[in-house]
Structures are given as structure tokens and as C-alpha cells.
Amino acid sequence: MNKPFPENKVSRKINLNADLGESHGAWVMGNDADMLPLVGSANLACGFHGGDPLVMRRTLRLAKRNGVSVGAHPSYPDLQGFGRRRMAMAPAELEAAILYQIAALDGMARVEGLRVSHVKPHGALNNAACADRGLADTIVRAIRAYDPALIVLAPALSELCAAGHAAGQPVVEEIFADRAYLDDGQLVPRGRADAMVHGAEASHAHVRRMLDEGAIVSVSGKRLPCRIGSICVHGDGAEAVATARYLRERLAAEGCTLVALTDLCA
To answer: Could you report the per-residue pLDDT of 25-40, keeping only the tens digit for each?
Structure first.
């Protein structure tokens, strides 16, 4: 049995988040109704890679019912490719596209008595911003233009984190429960056989190792120290709900207090 986390290794407060609201029309992605009671924060698609007005509104209502803080999950305009293809966009065009998506979700949220509290880029946009500081600066500029109080939820040790801190935007660093890491802290590309961490127990062991070390732990065992505030479970996987439930139960049993993202920046 795992022992409680040492105080000097990990904050007792931790956020569990998931990418949700990614269905579109008759096409269904994930199980939002079962996932939302398990997480503290939800990153909702804004129509460019998934989500549509009805899906956004329905997911916002579910989030409100479960007391879950909501964030925008903007993407490249790549609905057909689910936002997983990198696109060449001028900074002004990309900035406007991100503003458009945040505003769309926030407008829907206000109607439902909610406010968007954070922004987490999706897919290829997020991956590219991890390594490309210019792209990361463009994303943060859009977020800051909309609301300087919005939290940037960014992969730990990424250029997106650095850009958020440099701009004075609130930043929470996340790790992935179901994705493996390279030695430079980037995610293992999805095309590789070892890209994903499969199963609830394996995901917990992966997370537990990183929280114990206070670091990203790569597939080769390299440790990259970082400040971990949030853990992401991708909502589109077949094992997502079981993994989120197991993580929630185990982390609570091990001494973590699971909180909304906003509680980490209060």
C-alpha cells in the first residue's frame, strides 16, 4: 500500500481535470455525464475541434450541477481532424481564433450562471505551444486580452507555462495521467506504441511516481523537477471514467485534497 505523500514532495491540494464537451452533432465523444462528478475542473471544447452550441450548453449545465469549474479548450480550426493537426496561422489570425472560442463559451456560461475560469489549449495547438515560445506568447496574449484573471492551465515545464508567468497571468501546471513523456518533458507522440498509459492502476502509478518525485518522469526514467498543480485524464479514452474514479479515490486516500482549479489560485 502507498504511504501518504510527504509534505515536502507534493501539495496536499491537487486538481483533477478532463477535456470534455467534445461531441459534435450526432457524433459522440466521451462520457461527460459520468466524468463530471469525478473531476474538479472541465476544459470544454468551443466548436473548433469538437463541441457545438447544444453540446456546450448541455455540458455547462452538467458542470454546474456537479460544482465543477469550467474552462475554454480552444483549438486550431480543425473540426475534421479533431484539432490534432498543426496549422500554419499568422499570429493575429490565431489570436482572434482563440478570442472567438473563449468568448463563445463564456457567453454560453454566463447564460447558465457560470463564468469561464481558465483556458487550456487543445491537441496540436497545446503540443506546439509547449515548445514554441512565439506561439505560446500568442496564446497568452489572447487569453490576457479577454481577461487578465483567467488561469492558464498548461503542461508542466512548457513554453506555455513560461509565457503565462512572463505575462503575469495566473498559471497552473498540469501532468497527464494517461500519457507518457520524453526526456525533454514533451509528450511521447501518439503514433508511438508507448505514447499512452493504459489502465487505471497504471495511470495511478504513473501519477504517483511524478507526485512523489515532484517531477515529470520520462519513459527512460529521467526526472524533470516541476510544480504540479493539476492532473489531466483525457475524456475521450475508453478507460477515462474508470481511470478518473480510481485516481480520485486513491489520491484522496493518500492524503490529497481534490479541489477546483480556482482554489489553487485563490
So the answer is: 999 998 999 999 999 9
The model's pLDDT over 75-105, given as tens digits with 9 standing for 90+, comes to: 999 999 999 999 999 999 999 999 999 999 9
Compute the distance between CA of residue 201 and CA of residue 42 in angstroms, rounded to an integer: 22
The C-alpha cell at 90 is: 499568422
- Domains within the chain, CATH numbers bracketed: 13-264 (3.20.20.370)
- SS3 for the chain is CCCCCCCCCCCCEEEEEEEECCCECCECCCCHHHHCCCCCEEEEECCCCCCCHHHHHHHHHHHHHCCCEEEEECCCCCCCCCCCCCCCCCHHHHHHHHHHHHHHHHHHHHHCCCCEEEECCCHHHHHHHHHCHHHHHHHHHHHHHHCCCCEEEEECCCHHHHHHHHHCCCEEEEEECCECECCCCCECCCCCCCCECCCHHHHHHHHHHHHHHCEEECCCCCEEECCCCEEEECCCCCCHHHHHHHHHHHHHHCCCEECCHHHHCC
Pick the closest to residue 114 from 14, 266, 262, 223 (CA basis). Answer: 262
pLDDT tens digits, one per residue of 116-140:
999 999 999 999 999 999 999 999 9
Tell me the sheet residues that pair with 174: 155, 230
Q: How would you label 72-101 residue by residue, b for 16+ Cβ within 10 Å and e otherwise?
A: bbbbbbbbeebbeebbebeeeebbebbbeb
pTM over 0.90: yes
